[in-house]
């Protein structure tokens, strides 16, 4: 089920503080660390670079307009890809 409309999108307090500091042009060039994978990407975050935590390390994510409405966790995989050994 989707989130009810009257509640609005979930955005963590850490990301709200980042948005309020983005008015200064120099702050748009910074890279921000995000631990909240469940936060929704808002239109005001387009063009900002984030490091999204996947549980072990931070994955770099450049926010584009096509990402608006999605969650940060969708862009950093938490699973390790399996590499099978080849018989020789």
Describe what is shown at a glance.
This protein is mainly β.
Plain-language structure description:
With 88 residues, the chain is mainly beta. It has a single domain (13-75), classed as 30s Ribosomal Protein S19, Chain A. The protein is 9% helix and 16% strand. It has one helix at residues 13-20, and strands at residues 31-34, 49-53, 58-62. It has a 3-stranded mixed sheet, covered by helices on one side. The radius of gyration is 16 Å and the shape is globular.
Secondary-structure blueprint:
Blueprint: H1 13-20, E1 31-34, E2 49-53, E3 58-62
CATH fold category name? 30s Ribosomal Protein S19, Chain A
Strand order of the largest sheet: 1-2-3
The share of residues in extended strands comes to 15-25%
Provide the structure class. mainly beta
- Overall number of strands: 3
Q: What general outline do the C-alpha atoms trace?
A: globular
Number of domains: 1
CATH class division: Alpha Beta
| Main beta sheet | 3 strands, mixed
Query: What would CATH call the architecture?
Result: 2-Layer Sandwich
Please provide the ordered H/E string of secondary-structure elements.
HEEE
Protein name: Small ribosomal subunit protein uS19c
GO molecular function: rRNA binding; structural constituent of ribosome
Organism: Ophirina amphinema
Keywords: Mitochondrion, Ribonucleoprotein, Ribosomal protein, RNA-binding, rRNA-binding
Descriptors:
single chain; mainly beta; 30s Ribosomal Protein S19, Chain A; three-stranded mixed β-sheet; 9% helix; Small ribosomal subunit protein uS19c
